[in-house]
Amino acid sequence: MPMKKFINDPANLTTELLEGFALCYKGKVKIVSDKIVVRATPKDDGKVAIVTLGGAGHEPALSGFVGEGMLDASVVGDIFAAPGAPKLLEALRMLKREAGIVLVTLNHAGDRMSAAKALREAQKEGIRVREIVTHEDISAGVDTDPEEKRGLAGCIPLCKVIGAAAEQGQGLDDIVEIGERFNRQMATLAVAMTGCTHPQNGGPIAVLPDDEMEIGMGQHGEAGGGRSKLLTADETAARMIEPLTQATGVKAGDTAMLIINGVGATTLMEMFIVYRRAAQILAAKGVNVIPGACGEYLTVQEMAGFQMILCKLDEDHLELLKAEARTPYWTA
Amino acid sequence: MIAAAGADIRAEEKLFSELDAAEGGDGDHGTAIVTAFNAMAKADGDDFKTYLKNLSDRLQDEACGSTSTLYGTWLQGMSEAVPANASELDAGGVAAMFRGGLDEIGFVTRARVGDKTLMDALLPATDALAAAQTQGLPAMFAAAADAAEKGAEATGPMRARFGRAKNLGERSIGPRDAGAASMACIFRAFAKTLN
């Protein structure tokens, strides 16, 4: 499959996309030190800062949620590659404060390594920072060891919740408690329909046969059934919402939020059709489904498919989700 | 030695990317490891400690991703394991330097032999250096290169447990691990330089 993308020199992808992002959302975000996305107007130093890290090529990714009510900084790496520990450490130094910093790390090998190194250095320097690792992907099975589960788009509502708590002036330990509780009560399942090309070398990634799709990672089909012939939107929604319900423990009388994150080539039309069925199934179980989201947040180039995220909400989470936010990709 | 390894790595860039793609990674390990060597080529230092630290800093500043962090950490650990101001190291000092690098990597990854990562080449190579330290540097690095190649070869039938290839589960079985293959290439280049 030949690569068809609107790009310039593949070596400059990350720098150029961040330049465009900052120009487009002028007044909300800016880029400092080449690859650190920060708020245009920094938050009061007396409040806990929220920082995250991740590779590029997944736009808007977490940089889309830097702004009032959510993140203070997003440290960006290169295409599909975590930023190095020195860059992350630079961001932690920049945001050093008495109130402390929460670092949100998605569970991927490269991100975890950079975070581990940067955290060790930061602690040596007396920077007060605590880490929340998100690992809500149930693709390899609901009962998989959390260390083995990937962090997917569930980090976005988590950042909304802890970002709002930080904005209210809550303390570091309380914010971590709120975040970890949210972390335990959310789950994500991914489905893929077509692969994509690596924007730097044009190589194919995750190629699937024309008439097949894959729910989860398809190792043994633990969650959702693995590879299968194409299913309808309703069948797909049903097959995904069941393990998510099981993983989160959502039951009648609970309040929950459902998010569909398109990974690149799946249309909003499809996402809404799937959302509709998944929300209907939850409602039929007696679950109170609050307003959610369908859109492209954490993408993988032109890959077709989506991630379905289910979050069981406590009373405080509900309030924090409603709190004011003004970021490029989440406004409340 | 770094320059020689860099030349051999550049010659195999495409192979490393292909191996990475074949085992279920992003297919960019060749690019990553070449970027790492390009960054390291700019480092300098009058003694081992300074030079190794400079290599580590250059690499982590200019390259991203797991390769950057793993190699940066490896070099940092080596730097910490050599005495200050040393411009020459004996066989024992070299073995200790590589041991220090390996110990430091253990801080950032839980991967061990059998997980289909660069550790499958690096661990046996480091052990081989220590085991052969009475035989002089050329013999030490020849043993290390053999051990690293054997380790990399053994990753073929393994199922990946780290990195993106992990997501493929059993479908990651077959090709050698790209990170182990490039590590073996580096040890072979070291051995050739000393011979």
Primary descriptors:
heterodimer, A: 332 residues, alpha/beta, Rossmann fold, Hypothetical Protein Tm841, Chain: A,domain 3, 2 domains, six-stranded mixed beta sheet, B: mainly alpha, Serine Threonine Protein Phosphatase 5, Tetratricopeptide repeat, globular
Question: Care to describe what's here?
Answer:
The complex is a heterodimer of chains A (332) and B (195). Chain A is an alpha/beta fold and 332 residues long. Chain A folds into 2 domains: 10-184, Rossmann fold (3-Layer(aba) Sandwich); 186-314, Dihydroxyacetone kinase, domain 2 (Hypothetical Protein Tm841, Chain: A,domain 3). Chain A has 8 helices and 14 strands. Chain A has helices at residues 13-24, 85-94, 109-124, 155-167, 172-184, 233-248, 268-284, 315-322; strands at 29-32, 36-39, 49-56, 73-79, 101-106, 129-134, 186-194, 196-197, 204-205, 212-215, 226-229, 255-262, 288-295, 304-313. In chain A, strands 1-2-4-3-5-6 form a 6-stranded mixed sheet, sandwiched between helices. A 6-stranded mixed sheet of chain A has the order 11-10-7-14-12-13. In chain A, a hairpin with a 6-residue loop joins strand 8 (196-197) and strand 9. Mean pLDDT of chain A is 94; it is low at 218-224. The longest helix of chain B has 18 residues, at 91-108. Chain B is globular and about 50 Å long. Chain B is mainly α. Chain B contains 9 helices and no strands. The mean pLDDT of chain B is 92. Chain B has a single domain (2-194), classed as Alpha Horseshoe (Serine Threonine Protein Phosphatase 5, Tetratricopeptide repeat).
